[in-house]
Structures are given as C-alpha cells and as structure tokens.
C-alpha cells in the first residue's frame, strides 16, 4: 500500500513505501548534503528529501521524474516544508521514470444547496457538507478544474447558505487557482445567482457551446438546462474546429441514450450533428442516480447527486467523479463522498 504525507509520523520510519515526484533539485547545498530534493506525493502534498552524502544514494535526481522510496526516516521539515525525508544507507529508492502528464477534472452533479431533507424518506441530508467535502478532495488531488453539471442551488437556498458556498467552496478554489465551470440547471435561487455573478469570470465560468480549454488538452462544452428538453436547436452551434485532442460535453438533461425515449429526452445524435468533431465523453446532471452506458463508443453518464437524493432502490448518489485525461483517452473514477 502506498502512503501519502497524511500517513507519516515525525520521528518514525515510513509505514509503507511512498511514491513521489521531483519538482525541484538543489544540488550541493552544503552541510554534508548532496542535494535537497523538493517532492510531491501521489495526492499532490509537498515534502522534501535531504540527500545526505553519508546515505550514499546512487540516484541522479531528475525533475518531473517519479521515485519509489522505502525504509526512510520522517522528520520535521525545513526550508518551507512541514515534512522531510531523511534517508540512510538502508533506504531503498527506485526510479520510476518521468511522470506521465495528464489532465484531471472533478465532476460534481446536483448539489441542491438549500435542501435539508431527502425527497423520499424525509431524512436529514447535508448537501453543503457534501459539496465542500467533494471540492476539498478535488483540491487535494490537484485537479485542473472542477466542473458542476447543474442545480448548484435549490430554490430554498438562503443568503447564509449561498455565503457559505462562497467562503467554503469558491474561496478555497480561488486560493488553489482551480477554475469552477458550471451549468445552469432547472433549480436555482436568487442568493446563489448573486454569488455566481460576483465570482463570474474570476473563478466561476458558465460553460457554453464555444467551449473552454483546460490544460491545452481538453475542450469542455456545456449546454444549460432547457425545460422539456427544448434545446434552442437553431442556435446550437459549436466551433468549426477544435485544437484540443479531447472534447467533453456537459449537460443537465434527460438523455435518450440513457433513459430511453421520453417526452423530455434529448437525443445526443442531434447535438453531435452540429459538432464537426467527436465527443470523447458526455456527462449529464439532472438525474440523481448515477449511471453510465457506451453510445457509439463514447461513454455517456448521469453523475448522480452529490448528496443522498435519489428515490431509486440501491442508488448511486452522494458521489463525485474524477476524470483523468491522458494519451487522448478519458478515464473515470468514482469518488464516494464520505459522511462528515
């Protein structure tokens, strides 16, 4: 089992091996030190390794490369780091080669801030806590963007709840320099709209069919909710060309490809006919139970709700999703949002 900085205890050895990526190397800093190596663990937490000359480490540290470290002592950090690894002759370090570059997106759906009871059982629920926990996870994972597929707020959202979203969600994202891309769903509240307007184009961005580039590898397209599935087809246009290798479409609708033909179903075929390219992943909110199918080789999914809101038996809710884009492919991992 690989550990992260959170698992380490000062004054003890690593409990299990740790995989780290080098972000900077300061060679020959003195004090019998061969090098001072700045690192991040698999969760993006910073730490440092002091390569003492006496440890006789036969490693040529390289920036952006990863290493497998075991049998190493943990101590209080220096030089701006809270944690430091102090190797000895028994320490084992295995080079893993250059870290594979990827783009990661946290996808959240249907938080409905303002709801306090489960719509089916009447049990107490905590959408705000789930939203905050999911975003904290995204920040810990050092995602390149957080995306929300609609219904951030419910009609019952209060001024205080909207303010808490601003302070506990948008402020931390701003501090981490992580943009928040969202869709407008079929539920909203004036206090929430005001918060989004205040943050507009600084940390929060309403997605549209022009799309936005993330990390030069992904183009995110979004279509806000339209009642009864009545998308403005005559105005639905996409760029004539897309430079990014991966295109992802986000909606807040009932999809024919997932729910079958219903009075409000949107047919992805009609959308795709207006796009001179190919979507590599399609994500929709609106349905509070997560599900996924493949359509014409393309993964299509409902995210499900971030808090328990589904009325279905054995639902997939209180979840978020981590999309990892690498080598032109999209990989999807489920994050079960823990209860506080």
CATH class of the largest domain: Alpha Beta
Helix content: 10-25%
Q: In which order are the strands of the major sheet placed? A: 5-6-3-2-1-4-7
Based on CA atoms alone, the radius of gyration comes out at 23 Å
The total count of strands amounts to: 21
Give me the CATH architecture of the largest domain, please. 4-Layer Sandwich
> Which spans of ≥5 residues are poorly predicted at pLDDT below 50?
none
Can you identify the CATH superfamily of the largest domain? Metallo-dependent phosphatases
CATH topology of the largest domain: Purple Acid Phosphatase, chain A, domain 2
Report the order of strands and helices: EEEEEEEEHEHEHEEEEEHEHEEEEE
Proportion of strand residues: 25-35%
Q: What does the main sheet amount to?
A: 7 strands, mixed
- Overall SS class: alpha/beta
- Distance between termini? 25 Å
What brief labels describe this structure?
340 residues; alpha/beta; OB fold (Dihydrolipoamide Acetyltransferase, E2P); Purple Acid Phosphatase, chain A, domain 2; 2 domains; 7-stranded mixed β-sheet; 6-stranded mixed β-sheet; 21 strands; 15% helix; elongated
Topology:
Layout: E1 18-30, E2 33-41, E3 46-52, E4 65-70, E5 73-76, E6 83-86, E7 92-98, E8 103-108, H1 127-140, E9 145-148, H2 159-175, E10 180-182, H3 190-199, E11 204-206, E12 212-214, E13 218-222, E14 246-251, E15 254-255, H4 256-259, E16 265-266, H5 268-272, E17 281-284, E18 291-295, E19 298-302, E20 319-326, E21 329-336
Helix pairs in contact: 1-2, 2-3
């Amino acid at each position: 089992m690989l550990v992260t900085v959170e698992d380490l205890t000062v004054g003890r050895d690593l409990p299990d091996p740790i995989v780290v990526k080098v972000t900077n190397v300061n060679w020959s800093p003195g004090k019998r030190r061969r090098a001072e190596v700045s690192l991040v663990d698999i969760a993006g937490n910073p730490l440092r390794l002091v390569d003492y000359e006496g440890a006789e480490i036969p490693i040529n540290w390289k920036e952006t490369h990863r290493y497998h470290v075991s049998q190493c002592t943990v101590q209080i950090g220096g030089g701006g780091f809270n944690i430091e690894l102090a190797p000895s002759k028994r320490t084992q370090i295995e080079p893993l080669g250059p870290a594979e570059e990827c783009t990661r997106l946290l996808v959240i759906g249907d938080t409905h801030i303002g709801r306090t009871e489960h719509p089916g059982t009447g049990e107490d629920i905590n959408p705000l806590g789930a939203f905050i926990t999911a975003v904290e996870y995204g920040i810990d994972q050092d995602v390149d963007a957080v995306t929300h597929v609609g219904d951030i707020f419910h009609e019952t959202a209060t001024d205080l709840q909207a303010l808490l979203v601003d302070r506990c969600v948008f402020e931390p994202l701003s501090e981490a320099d992580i943009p928040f891309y969202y869709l407008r769903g079929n539920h909203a509240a004036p206090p929430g709209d005001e918060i989004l307007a205040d943050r507009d184009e600084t940390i929060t961005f309403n997605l549209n069919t022009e799309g936005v580039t993330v990390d030069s590898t992904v183009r995110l397209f979004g279509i806000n909710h339209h009642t009864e599935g009545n998308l403005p087809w005559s105005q639905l246009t996409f760029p004539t060309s897309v430079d990014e290798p991966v295109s992802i479409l986000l909606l807040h609708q009932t999809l024919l490809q997932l729910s079958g033909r219903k009075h409000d179903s949107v047919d992805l075929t009609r959308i795709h006919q207006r796009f001179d390219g190919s979507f590599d992943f399609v994500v929709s909110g609106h349905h509070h139970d997560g599900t996924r199918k493949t359509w014409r080789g393309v993964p299509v999914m409902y995210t499900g709700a971030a808090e328990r809101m589904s009325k279905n038996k054995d639902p997939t809710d209180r979840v978020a999703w981590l999309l990892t884009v690498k080598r032109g492919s999209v990989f999807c991992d489920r994050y079960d949002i823990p209860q506080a």
